[in-house]
Amino acid sequence: MRPIHPINEEQCRPYYGQPVFILLKDSTELVGTLSRLDKGKLYLNETAAGIQTNASTTAKSRRSGASSSLGKARTQTKKSDKPRTTAASEAFPVPYPDSELFGSPFELDVASVGALIVPD
Questions:
Q1: Can you give the pLDDT of all 120 residues of the chain as single tens digits?
Q2: 7, 111 in Cβ contact below 8 A?
Q3: Strands (DSSP E) along 10-118, which ranges?
Q4: Please, what's the b/e burial string for 37-61 (b: 16 or more CB within 10 A of its CB; e: otherwise)?
Q5: Cα–Cα distance measured from residue 119 to residue 1, given in angstroms and rounded to the nearest whole number
Q6: Cis status of the peptide bond prior to 95, with omega within 30 of 0
């Protein structure tokens, strides 16, 4: 077992997508898949597919005002394009493990974490 210390984005990034053991300052023990660290919060058990789906839904809703012929042309062009890398997908290593093993996604304030440990 290897502790991640200090708990910051630079130290956590190599372990994104891996299982972690978390000991909170109140002695609560948690296990999950480390997804990312952002703005002082640890995110666990997120799936890359779920985040990408949310990002594409937002993009589609922005394009809904286009005319039907223009929308059709865009659709035909997009089918041949390769998927683009987004900031959300860059955070996840490929292949990303099935995070449902540890339950629903959740977040923790880094200030409440006493220890963050990854298996060797």
A1: 999 999 999 999 999 999 999 999 999 999 999 999 999 999 999 986 544 444 454 455 445 544 444 444 444 544 444 444 444 445 544 434 555 667 899 999 999 999 999 998
A2: no
A3: 19-24, 29-38, 41-44, 106-109, 113-118
A4: beeeebbbbbbbeebeeeeeeeeee
A5: 4
A6: yes
